[in-house]
Amino acid sequence: MRAALLAGLGLTVVLAVGCTSDEHPGAAPPATAGLQDTATDRLPTGVTTALQPILDGVVADHALTGAAGARGLTAAVVKPDGSWTGAAGTDGVGKRLVPRAMMAVDSITKTFVAAEVMQLFAAGRVDVDAPMSRYVRHRLTANGATVREFLSMRSGVTDPPRHVFEALIRARTAHPAQPWPTRRILAFLHPGAGPPNGPPVYANSNYLLLGLLVESVTGRTPGEVARTDLFGPAGLVRIAAQDGERPTPPLARPSCRQAARDGYLPSRVVTDLEQDTFAGIAADAATIADWGNELYGGGRLLAPVLVRDMMIPPTNTGVAPGIGYGLGTMVFEGLGTDVTVGHIGADRCYTSMLAAVPARHLAAAVLIPQGSREVVPIMRDLLAALP
């Protein structure tokens, strides 16, 4: 998959401010004492000895290109017989990466929002086959599209061109003290609205609106709901729903213009506009792998029938070559013979990927503190190295 395609899939807002530096403690829970800043080797030795060289090779290959910025990555694998985390190279400010380093995971955030909506469906508080307008009154919901169609990118909503996101960031930066709630963001972006029930079209605006649904039904922000309904029950520790929460050190900083010295990843201006709905979560690789295992294979968060619903694309057309789209879930082709699901996140500062293989009872995550990197081949190599 080309880097440009990854950037399009994980399109977030773009910020032009200064670069990075200091790490700030925040509101997310502290790391457990047992976590180490070196690779965790709890899988059989024969397995783990094949994983670290993959990361080292990515760093070496990227260094040969002479590209500026981060030259490192972290990764994690979770299986029934153990887990592994590793790191290689440096972040965007030249700091050695450690497995526990938190990064923005961008559009992997959508898996959390979709899981919350499905929990509300299971509780009888949301009907995913009812019109979205039942829960959110907005011009973008007036076409009769259902909640399910918003979850699966088939609502007819389309994002504006990238330069509109850039203008939004400039406007937000010029008035930092003013509140920018979701409806104001949508008014500025003015996304397109076509007929629903067609082929999926990847648009972050769908998840801004789903965030409004969560707020209208629960009376809380999506980040607050995720903390109580998802992070806690799934046992996720090193995770933060920005900007309501700050990530906790160690952090992996990018070198992009969008970063700032404010304790958020990449900056509070960016995370404030993401509204905890389509790209605002930060975590470390082990946490994201654990999340994939819990969501797609654990059975504690959602009934298996609902998880299967999330993993089945409603059409044969994907959002990109080799990527189908279920309910907040990408379905990947070419990563093995078994069904592989999860999500890619990519913007100008970070690249990430979550992949879960339910039939093999495993999940893996790759986090890179640099935007629009080729992440699918890295994940393919990691999965191929696992028995």
Q: How many DSSP E strands?
A: 13
Query: What's the structural domain tally?
Result: 1
* Shape, principal axes of CA atoms: globular
| Fourth CATH level, the homologous superfamily | DD-peptidase/beta-lactamase superfamily
CATH fold field value: Beta-lactamase
* Count of helical stretches: 12
In terms of topology, how is this protein built?
Layout: H1 3-9, E1 40-41, H2 45-65, E2 73-79, E3 82-88, E4 103-104, H3 109-122, H4 147-151, E5 157-158, H5 162-174, H6 182-189, E6 192-193, H7 205-218, H8 222-231, E7 239-241, H9 268-274, E8 281-283, H10 285-298, H11 304-311, E9 323-325, E10 330-332, E11 340-346, E12 351-357, E13 362-368, H12 376-384
Antiparallel strand pairs: 1-3, 2-3, 2-13, 4-8, 5-6, 7-8, 9-10, 10-11, 11-12, 12-13
